[in-house]
Amino acid sequence: MICELLLLTYKTYLELLNDNELDSLQRPALEKDLLTATNNTMEMLSNLLHWSKSQMEGPTVNLLTIDLLSAIKSTLEMGKMHAHKKDIALNYHIEPQITVVADTDMLQLVVRNLISNAIKFTPPGGIININAQLVNHECKVTVSDNGKGMDRQKQEKIFSINTEPAFGTNNEKGVGLGLLLSKEFIERQGGRIGFESIFGQGSSFFIFIPAVVN
Description:
There is one protein chain. The protein has helices spanning 2-18, 26-57, 68-85, 104-120, 152-156, 178-188; strands at 64-67, 89-93, 99-102, 127-135, 138-145, 192-198, 202-210. It is α+β, with helices and mostly antiparallel strands. A hairpin with a 2-residue loop joins strand 4 and strand 5. The strands form 2 sheets. A 5-stranded mixed beta sheet has the order 2-4-5-7-6, covered by helices on one side. A two-stranded antiparallel sheet has the order 1-3. The termini are far apart. It is built from 6 helices and 7 strands; from the N terminus they run H-H-E-H-E-E-H-E-E-H-H-E-E. It has a domain at 62-210: Heat Shock Protein 90 (2-Layer Sandwich), CATH 3.30.565.10. It is 47% helix and 21% strand.
């Protein structure tokens, strides 16, 4: 559905360009819509591919001792760029000395999904905060926002394959696999995922991963 909508939007845009029916004021707005649709589609396809691969090949985890900030900094900066395009402030605070045991690729995907989810359900002018702290022998990474939040019915199915995909504040829509995939990937690394949410006030998603404590 999303792919079809994206192709239709591109087709309409090209037809308008060809007919010279776009003025200087209309073009930026339509190009912004195209960029949003493209980003949503890429995210959806990425999750679908990772999920399909995980179902076919089973658990393949490459656990390494890694520097947390170095491992996910590019993901954080990319999230910051996407948030900025929606006029959302994204801040992160992760101490450089935090070391964890994780699969780098899986960890990046999980963090990317949590950030993307926060951006999707936070309105323009909102704030997303990301931080990490050591809790006993684990590292807790939290992604919190002041967006739409979730009602109790939505919360009960949030990690289910049967969850109904929800529209974001700019009508963004996925396929409901992001959080399911995140739960599966974080648990394969010996970690866990949880959340707190208040409808109308925002959500906080957090993951726990094994940490190296000196």
